[in-house]
Write a structure and sequence with these properties.
34% strand, eight-stranded mixed sheet, four-stranded antiparallel sheet, serine protease, hydrolase, 6-blade_b-propeller_TolB-like, alpha+beta, 661 residues, globular
């Protein structure tokens, strides 16, 4: 019996593993494994332990809840983690020698991000505290029918968030500290500002946090790094309001503080970089200023749950360190040192989405995905690149399926710029036959398709489609000029890049049927799908997801609308003509392609009114269209939405293309 390709329902069988954490002794690893509980219709995450001697993964926590953020104590005998086992997310500590986990926080609004003190006797954590609340207030059970309905008073433009919904602007994030010996909980920060806990210096003197103390938060987009002196309770600024910075980490001797960030020279299209602050000389320098690629993981995917990529990780010598850069469809582990030396240490066609360094010997446990590998952990020697696979969580199931591999492509587009991408052949491909093609377009637009597993693409390949996906200008990974090129030019050369990609594969691959083309994408990819069908009839069918259709209304309804429109379209409400010129809705009369519109009811990033306007405009003209509204879902439906709805979404896409392409 022939094996089939990936089906939408296979999401119930596949497991995600993320956030590997090396123990201080360099011999043990803990990681987070997530699966979907079919009956519960929800995700379940637990911690797994692996000893590098026997390499047998063992489950350490149990239960049908979400457990994540494992962090070893300095002596390696205990593990702090976050769990929803008591309702709200709280912090627990588990001994590696056995026994029950002990709950450390009981905060009313939950607690997260445990950070151990160097002595191992305290844990700092992040907590949200509301008006007239204290850090020691505990959650009280409140029945739904007892909750009072209240009007929402809005005086700020930043009053909602796609991930959190409507914000309680009387609540602020602060830093708490738990004494593990006495059980005492102390609040370190105060005031009507958000303080985001980051790290604890190895000498025990400071915790770092991120904050924006600007008077007008609506007009400010900075994030500064601060040192909080635990003895004097004084906050010392490291950065000076010049940009946005995050993910601090320390050299073992506490002399150097590293972090990521940028000074927003190109707004949200600016490359992130590595910065190093010398506490001895008080000098701050940008370490990666000469590298024309962004620091961090900008790969887009639709599978991993809760992936965490750390910032700079220091070696024991206090001079060398490792970090990740996104470049040409890969995420690469780089080596650097204080002297300025820098080079790639792990550079393969792969997506590194997590890693943990053993500072003693330059080895690491790395989470890696490829086009045909959803994600596993590897033991890697960063000095010679040798790697050994440690986990095989999806191996048994994938032996029952056929996955399609990819072929990289590169072609010359507008202005002589090279554009890079991939072509995936259909499962069961036979020479001499012709196959339909689906063009996939990523969101962002400042993101990057990569050499990583993409569940949606495999499902389409299993249905007999070739899948084309590229990184048009505006994407990360191809230089600062490239990522900035889309700003003010939405629907211009980015559109031409995509059409040139289709022309290129039609010219180079005779198995593609030029009369059976489909196109789909989400967010910016949804905008571009709308734009494409308004400017060409070459596609037999299209699926637009969580899209933008009208920049005029988007300006006022999106959680990021007013500044995103100004940064990306380079226009505000004083330039209605330009906003409308770049709006796919303006070209609705020209859309002849059967268009499936998929949108989430609680999408505050690209609110559902964007889909409503396009749907009505098309139906009013009796065009072939259908509108699917997903309940209780936001902009992240395809990646982390309710599992049963994710599967329904995949089947809607598949069925629309089967019907029309």
């Amino acid at each position: 019996m022939a094996k089939s390709g990936i089906q939408a329902e296979d999401l119930y069988e596949l497991k995600s593993i993320v956030d590997p954490q090396f123990s201080p002794n360099g011999k043990e690893v803990v990681f987070v494994q997530t699966h979907i509980e079919k009956e519960k219709k929800d995700y379940v995450s637990n911690l797994f332990y692996l000893n590098l001697h026997d390499k047998q993964a063992k489950q350490w926590t149990f239960g049908n809840h979400r457990t994540h953020s494992p962090r070893w104590s300095p002596n390696g005998n205990e593990l702090a983690f976050v769990s929803t086992r008591e309702g709200e997310s709280q912090i627990f500590v588990l001994s590696k020698f056995g026994g029950e986990a002990k709950q450390i926080t009981f905060s009313k609004n939950g607690a997260r991000n445990p950070v151990w003190s160097p002595c191992g006797k305290k844990i700092a954590f992040s907590v949200v505290i509301g008006k007239e609340e204290t850090i020691n207030d505990q959650a009280k059970e409140e029945k739904a029918e007892d909750k009072e309905l209240k009007p929402l008073e809005v005086e700020k433009m930043k009053y909602k968030s796609d991930s959190s919904g409507f914000l309680d602007l009387t609540q602020f994030s602060h830093i708490g500290m738990a004494n593990l010996e006495t059980g005492e909980i102390e609040q370190l920060t105060s005031g009507d500002y958000h303080h985001s806990l980051d790290s604890w210096s190895p000498d025990g003197k400071y915790v770092t946090y991120l904050a924006d103390f600007s008077d007008d938060s609506d007009e400010s987009f900075i994030s500064d790094v601060y040192l909080f002196n635990l003895e004097t309770k004084e906050s010392i600024p490291v950065t000076k309001g010049t940009g946005s910075f995050w993910q601090t980490s320390w050299s073992p001797n506490s002399r150097y503080l590293s972090f990521q960030g940028n000074e927003q020279e190109f707004k949200n299209a600016t490359h992130s970089k590595v910065w190093i602050y010398d506490l001895q000389t008080k000098e701050l320098n940008c370490f990666t200023s000469e590298i024309d690629a962004p620091v961090g993981d900008y790969a887009v995917g639709d599978f991993q749950q809760g992936a965490v990529l750390p910032g700079v990780q220091w070696a024991e010598d206090n001079e060398s360190f490792y970090f990740v850069i996104s470049d040409h469809g890969n995420t690469i582990v780089y080596y650097g040192n204080i002297s300025g030396e820098i080079y790639p240490a792990l550079h393969d066609k792969q997506h590194v989405y997590g890693f943990s360094l053993n500072p003693k010997d330059h080895t690491a446990v790395v989470a890696i995905s490829t086009a045909t590998e959803p994600g596993e952990l590897y033991f890697v020697n960063l000095q010679n690149g040798q790697k050994e696979q440690l986990t095989f969580v999806n191996q048994e199931f994938l032996q029952t399926r056929v996955l399609s591999d990819v072929e990289p492509i590169e072609f010359e587009s507008e202005n002589g710029w090279n554009v890079h991408g991939w072509l995936m052949k259909p499962v069961g491909f036979e020479e001499g036959k012709q196959y339909p093609l689906i063009l996939e377009i990523h969101g962002g637009p400042h993101a990057m398709y990569a050499n990583t597993y993409f569940n949606e693409f495999q499902i389409l390949a299993a249905q007999g489609y070739a899948v084309l996906y590229i990184n048009p200008r505006g994407s990360h990974g191809y230089g600062q000029k490239y990522v900035d090129a889309v700003r003010g030019d939405y629907g211009g050369n980015d559109y031409k890049d995509l059409m040139n990609a289709v022309d290129y594969v039609l010219d180079q691959y005779d198995f593609i049927d030029k009369d059976r083309l489909g196109v789909t994408g989400g967010s910016y990819g949804g905008f571009m799908t709308n734009w494409i069908v308004g400017h060409t009839n070459r596609f037999k069918a299209a699926v637009t997801q969580r899209s933008i259709s009208n920049w005029i209304s988007f300006y006022g309804v999106s959680d990021i609308g007013y500044y995103f429109s100004e940064w990306q379209i380079i226009a505000d409400l004083n330039d209605i003509e330009k906003l409308w010129k770049h709006s796919p809705l303006a070209y609705a009369k020209d859309i002849e392609t059967p268009l499936l519109i998929i949108h989430s009811e609680k999408d505050y990033r690209c609110p559902i009114e964007q889909a409503e306007q396009l749907f009505i405009a098309l139906k009013r003209q009796q065009k072939q269209t259908k509108f699917i509204r997903f309940p209780e879902s936001n902009h992240e439906l395809s990646r982390s939405g309710k599992p049963d709805l994710r599967i329904k979404r995949l089947n809607y896409i598949k069925d629309w293309f089967l019907q029309y392409v």
